[in-house]
Design goal:
alpha+beta; D-amino Acid Aminotransferase, Chain A, domain 1; 2 domains; six-stranded antiparallel sheet; two-stranded antiparallel sheet; 35% helix
Amino acid sequence: MLVRRAEMLPIECIVRGYIAGSAWKEYRRSQTVHGAPMPPGLEESSRLSEPRFTPSTKADSGHDVNISREDARNLVGSELLDEAESLCLGAYEVAASRALERGIVIADTKFELGLIDGRLSICDEMLTPDSSRFWSLDRWQPGTTPASFDKQPVRDWAEQTGWDKESTPPPVPPEVIAATRDRYVSAYEQLSGKTFADWWGVTE
């Protein structure tokens, strides 16, 4: 694997095409998303009029924290933030359009950016169920919480254990791992049009 060393930005670059997760929770409280006013009358999972660039902090421990554009600008500077927004929105719009053709909604996704030889680049994985919220187009409906092709089984299990999300987590049960794997495989097959069992990296 060829890798490059990058000077990582101290923010997570989130693009939201639909309102869900922490954005929906904030909207219900204050009718804002990352501190920016939003139109009235949105329902959970509503498609936004246009994708939104919504940064958050990169926490060394605990949870990332949603921040405003002004807070992000103070962290990375105006020029770099504008470039990050353009890069992330462009990548999201291309991917979301192609995914819709395969019957999958990319509700939101997270990019990690860094500077490689002074050039802003997307680093780490991108547009996978690890960093994105994928929904089946035929099950998506505003006002609901659509089933997703992501690690929700792990999140649900963690909530039920009472784990404080600070200490070492308990072992994840095999059935939770299997349920998460099944979602990832389903997303791969639907997006690629290929059978996961035929992928060269799969072993018996």
